[in-house]
Amino acid sequence: MIRSYPLLALLAILTFVGCNRNPTAKTTKPTSEIGLEIGKMAPDLAFSSPDGKVIALSSLRGKMVLVDFWASWCLPCRIENPNLVKVYQQYKDEEFSEGNGFTIYSVSLDTKSSRWTAAIQEDGMSWENQVSDLKGWYSDAAKIYQISAIPANVLLNGDGIIVARDLRAESLENKIKSLMQ
């Protein structure tokens, strides 16, 4: 008697994998590959604002968007926030070569809503796009964007393509100026 169990197992696996494929499905290349590198389409996010409204990052398409990861308990983040406020106020209505206007999509890694909302008020972060899942370092957004330290940010053009990462103070303002029409 020939032992054919390994061969049968292999055939079963190949059959199962083959059954999960749709041979008639069209494979079209996306216009932009999703990824975290400069030049790739940024992964979409959709999280709740302090008032419970879900805000999708993709809803901001057409504008230059800074996806900013921060937390109320992060001193470097709080030190950087006045720079973000200044840049937002200065460029929110400007025309860019790759977007109309500028906004910030702030993702908080807080765990307590009261601290998060108090920091937004204290720091004068007047843009609407404040979101969090209140999971701290276990934030789904932080996992998706592979955030291991904050503050961290990603600058997107109007098509949602990453054009820069981890810009602070002058480097953020200089990059935004360079993208103006």
Q: In a few lines, what is going on in this structure?
A:
The protein is α/β, with parallel strands linked by helices and 181 residues long.
What does this protein structure show overall?
This protein has helices at residues 5-19, 75-91, 113-122, 140-144, 169-178; strands spanning 46-48, 54-56, 64-70, 95-96, 99-100, 102-108, 130-131, 152-156, 162-165. The protein is α/β, with parallel strands linked by helices. It has one domain (32-178): Glutaredoxin. The strands form 3 sheets. Strands 7-6-3-8-9 form a 5-stranded mixed sheet, covered by helices on one side. A two-stranded antiparallel ribbon has the order 1-2.
Tags for this entry?
alpha/beta, 181 residues, two-stranded antiparallel sheet, five-stranded mixed sheet, Glutaredoxin, globular
Secondary structure layout plus pairing:
Elements: H1 5-19, E1 46-48, E2 54-56, E3 64-70, H2 75-91, E4 95-96, E5 99-100, E6 102-108, H3 113-122, E7 130-131, H4 140-144, E8 152-156, E9 162-165, H5 169-178
Q: How would you write the strand order of the largest sheet?
A: 7-6-3-8-9
Q: Please indicate the count of domains.
A: 1
By CATH reckoning, the class would read: Alpha Beta
SS element count, helices:
5
- In CATH terms, the superfamily is Glutaredoxin
Broad structural category: alpha/beta
Based on Cα principal axes, name the global outline: globular
Low-confidence stretches: 4-31
Please indicate the percent range of residues in DSSP E strands (runs of 2 or more).
Answer: 15-25%
Estimate percent helicity.
25-40%
Question: What is the string of helix and strand elements?
Answer: HEEEHEEEHEHEEH
Integer average pLDDT: 86
Task: From the 3D structure, determine the CATH topology.
Answer: Glutaredoxin
> Separation of termini?
78 Å
Count of individual beta strands: 9
* Second CATH tier, the architecture: 3-Layer(aba) Sandwich
Work out the radius of gyration. Answer: 21 Å
Please describe the biggest sheet, giving its number of strands, its sense, and whether it closes into a barrel.
5 strands, mixed
